[in-house]
Amino acid sequence: MQYNDLKRDLGKAIEVAKSLKKPRINDNILIISDYMSRSAGKILYISLLSSGKKATLLTPTESVEYSLPYYEHFNSVIVFSSNSKDSRSVHAAEVSRLMNLEVNFISPKMEDALEERLEYLNVNRILVDSKTPVIVNSIASLLWIPEDLGDRYERIKREIDDLENSYDWLINKYGSSIEKMKNLNEEFVMFYTPSTEAGAIYCYNIIQNCIFILPIELLSNKIKYRKYLLTSSVDSSDFKDLILMLKMGYLDNEVIEFNTDPITAGLYSMLLISLISNKLI
Fold first, then answer.
1. Cα dist from 113 to 39, 179, 190, 242, whole Å
2. The model's pTM
3. Residue-wise pLDDT tens digits, 183-198
4. Homologous superfamily assigned to 166-277
């Protein structure tokens, strides 16, 4: 995919995300996401924590087996999915409805049998009509951040309004890192900090020679692959020792740091990966 095509597809994804009906987002909300959609879940989760709200982020299985049957204080549920065969997320919606919780189910069209189950459950169905549901869900979760973030909200809103130009900014700021990773022919490990987990997951899903991803806390010299780290300036201040260890471990290890709000760092890290892979999903 050429740059102009990638930028066009990003524009389409932004349009779709803006067209989605914003769900009601209460305090003490449960966010459920399959692995592919964890990026969207994590972006929303960080924004809610940053605004002082209570939020829980779980996989479908975690929610069904370890949380919903035992914790009665969730006010509502948001489910993100990107897989038309994602029966586990539908089951999580079923259990949530049995607990009499309002459920917002955000995904592309599911298989007919699963769509019928969702209709029967009377969930708030938010259909993502796009070939790039992962990035659409993630943009939508950024659009839905709470307004009670104070000055941060206005700053983040300005960034969101200028999202279509983010590729130009990323190339200008991180062009050398993008080119190095584009031309990399060896396997590598992508490390991440809390605000950039979204980009690391995206990397694992679309870059073939990214063999696995790990949180920075699991950095070890036992790992004999080239190492990259996606981080934000806020996170980096808490991981100075590990970042130094990564840089000293191998000359070609590299740190890509986003000097942005942690809430937007996740999406920027995803878009950087899309520039490296020439692909949006």
1. 26, 44, 37, 48
2. 0.95
3. 999 999 999 999 999 9
4. Glucose-6-phosphate isomerase like protein; domain 1 (3.40.50.10490)
